[in-house]
Amino acid sequence: MKVGIIGLPQSGKKTLFTILTGTQITEGTQLGKPIPGTADILDPRFDKLVAMYEPKKEQPARIDFVLLPKMEKETISKGSIFQDIADMDAICLVVRAFEDESIFHVDGHVDAVRDTEMICSELLIHDQIFVEKRLERLELSLKKIKDEDQKKEFALLQRMQAHLEEEKPLRLFDISDEEEALIRSYPLITRKQMLVVLNTGEDAIGDGKIPAPIGERSQRDHMAVLQICAGMEAEIALLEDAEEKTAFLEDLGIAEPALGLLTRTALEALGRISFFTVGKDEVRQWLVRRDAPAPKAAGVIHSDLERGFIRAEVIKYDELMALGSEAEVKKAGKLSVNGKDYRVEDGDILNIRFKV
């Protein structure tokens, strides 16, 4: 599961990537190539479970972020940036929304709406060009030999082409499992889930104001959008004392660091949810596909648990917090016992019973 961070030069991509992953980008780092990193999922529920159980070991879930080369005329014209994006599972677009005269903008002035529209258009154009070229090759091939799979693919790509010509990303395009198999290897970028991060100035912290055109596009194109002040988040990340960090956030009127929201939003884009296992030995957060059955979640923990799955004992996070302990949850009859058909929900606390 890899989330690619993209954006124009001087948008704050490197700052955001460093805060998320702790990866330091030095002068020797090859900025023309993707830079991988890993970030903890910042989830207040995990922190509260750790405080409740005081375990010997704690392990939050993690997510891979990749800092991709900046989107500029050279990388766009060569097409290399699109090859890098095609290798990602989801896209995080960082858009500059802060004013700072000491930091240049490639187009002369800051305009978050313009930059968002431009990059979204470039991604659409990439997919249009790919589909057009593939249709041309298929048309030539079908003149020589009538292949049923190629005929199906040709019809599918024609529908995709019409969809893209309406300036709609392919994540909005309905496709069957059979059709999915025909194009699985294709580098179609707009099929990927996308989130837009508006990198604001300190004056916009907490106002939650998304420019109307970006908000409208995000709803229309199924993109998540949120605001982060990367500069301020970098200062918060440097604070090691938890109480000092909490006081700093309270002074700014921030309920939690925006990076927590970002990592969880990235999870949603990847179609993943969190569940937990708890105890005095370890509190751990796990990731599984949304709507996964209980045995699949058990398999995330260990293959033996999936193979020998008997049942899943489930406690809902909110009920545990409200009642204060597992003993009180059981006393209230809130612990449920579920079989193979149970669909794991975000925040579930699981205890898997199995036999191999």
From TrEMBL:
Write the record's keywords in alphabetical order, separated by commas.
ATP-binding, Metal-binding, Nucleotide-binding
Q: Which domain of life is it from?
A: Bacteria
Occurrences of domain YchF C-terminal (ranges): 273-354
Per UniProt, what is one GO molecular function of this protein? metal ion binding
A single GO CC term for this protein reads: cytoplasm
CDD domains the UniProt entry points to: TGS_YchF_OLA1
Supply the Pfam families for this chain. Answer: YchF-GTPase_C
Name of the molecule in the record? YchF C-terminal domain-containing protein
